[in-house]
Predict the 3D structure of the following.
Amino acid sequence: MERDITLRIVLEAPPPGVDFGVQKGRGSAFETIQTQRSTGGDLSFEFSVPVKVASAAGAADFGGPIVQGPPGGRFVYIDIGTVAGQRDTPWSRRLKVPLSGITAEQVRRVSVGTRRALEARVPGTGKDGGPSCASVKNFQGWSQAR
């Protein structure tokens, strides 16, 4: 069964003065949506994605133009700096937020129409003091948003 769910990514305290946004599309035919410039506080990105669940106990498989990667390894990119379209920055990065671990039960609870979302909170600043990049480190997973 296919349905849409709402996902929210909260980027915690990214460095100020840097643009961040959600990547829509793949390869050279992508665009950055929901672009926001950090002031040092948390940034929040919310969007809907289609999901298929084979059975109540089955794994969720995501699709649509925001979702990247192969089945079993799906993720969402947060574009950073020049990748997000910012011109006046030295930063040119992407942050990969995995969709792994989302269960069929979580999908059922937050299907569009319930006005609920699944939320992932990820660090916005890396060890080098710049924006976090590559795959999210120590990913805590997805939970129902409050």
User: Anything to note?
Assistant: The longest helix spans residues 104-110.
